[in-house]
């Protein structure tokens, strides 16, 4: 794919030399020298170049807590097992729920981690923990995975957003917001909560294309004049933020699923989750380092099996489409797909045939990005506790960072205080890293 | 135990605090003391500071800092044209005497109390601050009100919010109190002795936490037990019983440190159950650990933490950079840039019985506060020299209120009685709250996010609230201007609080002339380019 095709509209070809030529003469060359480099449309990030250097992440957030027993860690025959069977996958000796036949076929690209013990069974607190890999301190709010990836993989002058999160359903949304914590608003997510187009990315009808562009140039020119003789990080960030506006507006087509062929759209399925996942692929292909697609609401305190019978096959289908699509485009080894939630569900089945919150032995999956496929860790026969290879939130995050080529022990600094990406003393799961 | 620790604390404190005998005398005017110390350091560093900012800049800076908005064109004009040698002092006094000063103080204190991550306080605290700051209640009194947090006292209603909203997480409460009032972040000492700061041991963290250990939420009301103590596991050695201990090491022999008898326990439980049933504030304990902390922290040997922290915070608010940075790292390993000045200011605030107004007035009257934010020579001086004005991003309310004032018909604010003017400005302020909620609260390492740039560029909200046509709007007045030059002058004076430069006139006239067929839109675009510009976004 070539991102230039999004920018090829005749509107963008309008020359502004006329206005700016005079403006430059009036204000002087210092400010104008910078203006000449302003043609963002000619500076678009080349997707191909990004592809070679950097990895990207699509997080499928199974909000409310999907059941490990009906997905990655089935226990057929156990009293806690439920009605579904397990099936053999493409990796010998690894069986997953029969609700995921397509994942079973693609297991050669996937790792199921079956030994999460994260100890927090409260939606809000657990979602924060699993988005950040650690618990906030009294006075330190940590950035979440998306913000860290945005900082590590994004580019200051990026023409695309660097952290996008979809969470359209309302259930649980306020409990799992994206957050850049102490990294600040530069890395705050672009949140899509009402539809598949970001807020304020489209020009209002009241202003034409030429005026929109030239008034931005005017703004820039005057602001650069103000910036002369003034050195300030917030001032720099203000101008940078505005420099990104036109590029982001040009990326509106990235969010437009109708740009894809019918065949491709059918492959993902015409559900909200399918379409948002397809958009996520469009985004990462264009250089967006991190996209979260939230799918709610897995909180099956009642009728757990009906819920999963309906939702797991959709997940299976959409993820299969994504894996195949990324593979076809040569992006799978550079992209990590994560399925994660705030916690899993109890092995014990309650009187409403539901499963409750459970954080002591649950599962997630990592796909692509050269992760070693198969299964890691073990829960006991009933699924009540981890018996092998226990993984906590910090270890999971250390593994994710390592697989993406980010040193998990790297420090950020809060004043003089070094803040490592993961809790000190945490090592990644070495066995699953390539 | 007590005396060696206290002695240690005194040694450590005096390492960064000059002894008061060497300080300038307390009756020296505040601004003069400030400039004495700041100039001395500049001289020692061989740095010539930037010149004083011009009058246009100064009235904008002072109005933003003291009443939370830009000045109106009429205010700017009157100030700049005045030849009164006392005009600056008169401006400061007028602004500080206005109700808007209190409202802005409330906004600033509320943001400070919400912490860097905007952790919520409910409306109660705001109500309290409005009342307390409105009657100029001293800072030590506010501290006491917030800590003692007596919910049955009408005079301090709402002050309890700070403690109550944090009481379910005592670690956070302990740290937030230490950070806000004492400039000390003790959270590092929670799991181990502080790695960088020898003065902070685990005993300090758990000692501070002990003052809160008896507090809890009793069905919506803040309650405190007669008993209760904290045990903790040190990095090495057996479990330890924490003593109520202030940051200086001063300890308190608290009653109720022993396990209560079954009988006492039962009595207490019944008391709280009854209060729950009656939906009433439970009676306070005979000994309140929180009240004790308020007492200990303000006694003469201990009060330096309290007075130095507020001095540093005020300095930071007006200069954009603390004498100690970051604000929550006031300890022996992180020395102030101007140790004597910090000590002098802290002493001065204490001498004024924690009335903060003299310090605020002194800071904004100083030369150090008044410098231009432009630095024309080669290398940028270190921020701690205060050689050049520092850009301060506007707070959400400063920005939103200023946007409304900038884009209102300037005649709204002309030729009206002071009371009426005050009312009209307050109306703009009230109308600004909605937009303010979509702007991020600045922090020390603040960065403007792209969401804000998109909001300004493409939202209906900005277009509707600030670029609308109409008789009460700037655009309406601009359209009636005799020619483009006058229209530009009007826009720049309203938005930038200064006349347009010749270059700007030229550029903007060119911009307008190319849009002769759509003049109102062209004016709107020029206004947009200024309100979304860097100059407007910052207090420079």
Brief sketch in words of this structure:
By secondary structure, chain A is α/β, with parallel strands linked by helices.
Would you give an account of this structure?
The complex is a heterodimer of chains A (434) and B (540). In chain A, helix 1 packs parallel to helix 7, helix 7 runs antiparallel to helix 8 and helix 11 (272-285) runs parallel beside helix 12 (304-328). Chain A contains 13 helices and 16 strands. In chain A, strands 6-5-7-1-8-11-4-12 form an 8-stranded mixed β-sheet, with helices on both faces. In chain A, strands 2-3 form a two-stranded antiparallel ribbon. A two-stranded antiparallel ribbon of chain A has the order 9-10. Residues 1-52 of chain A have low confidence and may be disordered. Chain A has helices at residues 17-27, 29-35, 47-53, 101-105, 123-132, 145-153, 209-227, 233-243, 245-250, 262-268, 272-285, 304-328, 393-403, and strands at residues 56-63, 86-88, 95-97, 110-116, 164-166, 190-192, 290-296, 335-340, 344-345, 357-358, 362-368, 374-376, 378-379, 386-388, 411-414, 417-420. Chain A is an alpha/beta fold. Chain B has 540 residues and is mainly alpha-helical. Helix content of chain B is 54%, strand content 4%. Chain B contains 26 helices and 8 strands. In chain B, the strands form 4 sheets. Chain B has a two-stranded antiparallel sheet. A two-stranded antiparallel sheet of chain B has the order 3-4. In chain B, strands 5-6 form a two-stranded antiparallel ribbon. The model of chain B is unreliable at 1-17 (pLDDT under 50). Chains A and B meet through helix 1, helix 7, helix 8 and helix 9 of A and helix 10, helix 20, helix 24, helix 25 and helix 26 of B.
């Amino acid at each position: 794919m070539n991102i230039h095709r999004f920018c090829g509209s005749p509107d963008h070809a309008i020359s502004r030399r006329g206005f700016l030529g005079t403006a430059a003469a009036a204000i002087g060359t210092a400010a104008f020298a910078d203006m000449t480099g302003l043609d963002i449309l000619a500076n678009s990030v080349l997707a191909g170049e990004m592809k070679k250097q950097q990895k990207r992440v699509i997080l499928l957030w199974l909000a409310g807590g999907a059941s490990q027993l009906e997905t990655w860690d089935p226990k057929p025959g156990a009293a806690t097992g439920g009605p579904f069977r397990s099936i053999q996958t493409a990796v010998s000796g690894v069986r997953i729920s029969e609700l995921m036949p397509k994942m079973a076929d693609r297991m050669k690209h996937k790792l199921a981690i079956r030994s999460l013990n994260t100890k927090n069974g409260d939606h809000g607190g657990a979602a924060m923990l699993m988005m950040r890999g650690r618990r906030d301190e009294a006075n330190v709010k940590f950035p979440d995975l998306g913000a860290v990836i945005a900082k590590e993989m994004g580019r200051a002058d990026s023409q695309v957003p660097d952290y996008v999160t979809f969470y359209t359903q309302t259930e649980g949304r306020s409990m799992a917001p994206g957050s850049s914590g102490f990294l600040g608003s530069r890395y705050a997510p672009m949140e899509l909560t009402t539809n598949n187009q970001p807020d304020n990315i489209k020009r209002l009808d009241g202003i034409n294309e030429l005026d929109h562009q030239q008034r931005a140039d005017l703004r820039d020119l005057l602001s650069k004049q103000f910036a002369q003789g003034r050195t300030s990080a917030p001032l720099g960030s203000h101008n940078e933020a505005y420099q990104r506006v036109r590029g982001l507006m040009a990326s509106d087509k990235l969010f437009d699923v109708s740009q894809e062929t019918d065949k491709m759209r059918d492959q993902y399925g015409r559900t909200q989750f399918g379409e948002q996942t397809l958009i996520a692929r469009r985004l990462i292909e264009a250089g967006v380092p991190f996209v979260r697609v939230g799918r709610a609401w897995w909180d099956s305190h009642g009728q757990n099996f009906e819920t999963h019978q309906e939702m797991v096959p959709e997940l299976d289908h959409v993820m299969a489409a994504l894996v195949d699509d990324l593979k076809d485009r040569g992006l799978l080894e550079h992209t990590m797909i994560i399925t994660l939630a705030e916690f899993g569900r109890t092995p014990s089945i309650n009187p409403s045939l539901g499963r409750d919150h459970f954080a002591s032995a649950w599962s997630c999956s990592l796909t692509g990005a050269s992760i070693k496929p198969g299964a890691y860790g073990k829960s006991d026969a009933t699924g009540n506790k981890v018996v092998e290879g226990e993984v906590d939130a910090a270890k999971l995050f250390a593994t994710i960072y390592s697989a993406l080529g980010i040193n998990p022990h790297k420090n950020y600094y809060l004043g003089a205080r070094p803040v490592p990406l993961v809790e000190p003393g945490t090592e990644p799961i070495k066995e699953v890293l390539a | 135990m007590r005396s060696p620790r206290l002695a240690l604390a005194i040694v450590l404190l005096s390492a960064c605090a000059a002894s008061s005998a060497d300080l300038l005398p307390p009756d020296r005017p505040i601004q003069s003391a400030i400039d004495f110390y700041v100039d001395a350091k500049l001289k020692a560093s061989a740095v010539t500071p930037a010149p004083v900012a011009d009058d246009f800049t100064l009235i904008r800076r002072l109005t933003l800092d003291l009443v939370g908005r830009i000045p109106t064109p009429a205010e700017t004009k009157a100030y700049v044209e005045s030849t009164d040698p006392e005009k600056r002092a008169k401006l400061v006094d007028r602004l500080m005497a206005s109700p808007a000063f209190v409202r802005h103080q409330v906004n600033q204190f509320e943001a400070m109390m919400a912490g860097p991550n905007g952790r919520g306080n409910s409306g109660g605290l705001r109500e309290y601050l409005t009342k307390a700051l409105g009657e100029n209640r001293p800072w030590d009194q506010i501290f006491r009100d917030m800590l003692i947090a007596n919910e049955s006292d009408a005079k301090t209603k709402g002050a309890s919010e700070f403690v109550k909203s944090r009481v379910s997480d005592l670690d956070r409460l302990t740290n937030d109190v230490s950070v806000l009032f004492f400039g000390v972040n003790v959270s590092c000492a929670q799991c181990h002795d502080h790695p960088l700061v020898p003065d902070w041991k685990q005993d300090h963290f758990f000692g501070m936490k002990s003052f809160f250990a008896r507090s809890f939420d009793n069905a919506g009301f803040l309650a405190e037990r007669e008993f209760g103590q904290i045990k903790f596991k040190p990095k090495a050695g057996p479990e330890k019983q924490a003593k109520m201990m202030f940051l200086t090491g001063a300890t308190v022999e608290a009653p109720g440190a022993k396990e209560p008898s079954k009988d006492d326990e039962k009595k207490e439980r019944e008391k709280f159950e009854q209060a729950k049933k009656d939906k009433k504030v439970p009676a306070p304990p005979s000994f309140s650990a929180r009240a004790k902390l308020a007492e200990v922290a303000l006694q003469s040997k201990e009060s330096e933490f309290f007075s130095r922290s507020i001095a540093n915070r005020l300095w930071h608010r007006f200069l954009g950079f603390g004498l100690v940075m970051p604000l929550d790292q006031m300890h022996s390993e992180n020395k102030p840039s101007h140790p004597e000045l910090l000590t002098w200011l802290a002493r001065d605030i204490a001498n004024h019985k924690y009335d903060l107004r003299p310090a605020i007035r002194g800071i904004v009257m100083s030369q150090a506060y008044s410098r231009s934010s432009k630095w024309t020579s080669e290398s940028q001086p270190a921020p701690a020299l205060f050689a050049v004005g520092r850009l301060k991003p506007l707070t959400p309310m400063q920005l939103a209120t200023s946007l409304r004032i900038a884009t209102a018909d300037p005649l709204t604010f002309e030729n009206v009685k002071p009371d009426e003017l005050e009312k009209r400005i307050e109306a703009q302020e009230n109308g600004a709250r909605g937009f303010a909620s979509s702007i991020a609260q600045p922090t020390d390492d603040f960065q403007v996010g792209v969401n804000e740039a998109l909001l300004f560029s493409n939202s209906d909200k900005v277009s509707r609230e600030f670029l609308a046509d109409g008789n009460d709007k700037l655009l309406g007045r601009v359209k009636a201007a005799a020619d483009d030059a006058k229209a530009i002058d009007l826009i720049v004076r309203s938005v930038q609080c200064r006349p347009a430069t010749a270059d700007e006139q030229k550029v903007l006239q060119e911009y307008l002339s190319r849009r002769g067929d759509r003049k109102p839109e062209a004016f709107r675009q020029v206004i947009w380019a200024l309100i979304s510009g860097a100059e407007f976004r910052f207090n420079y």
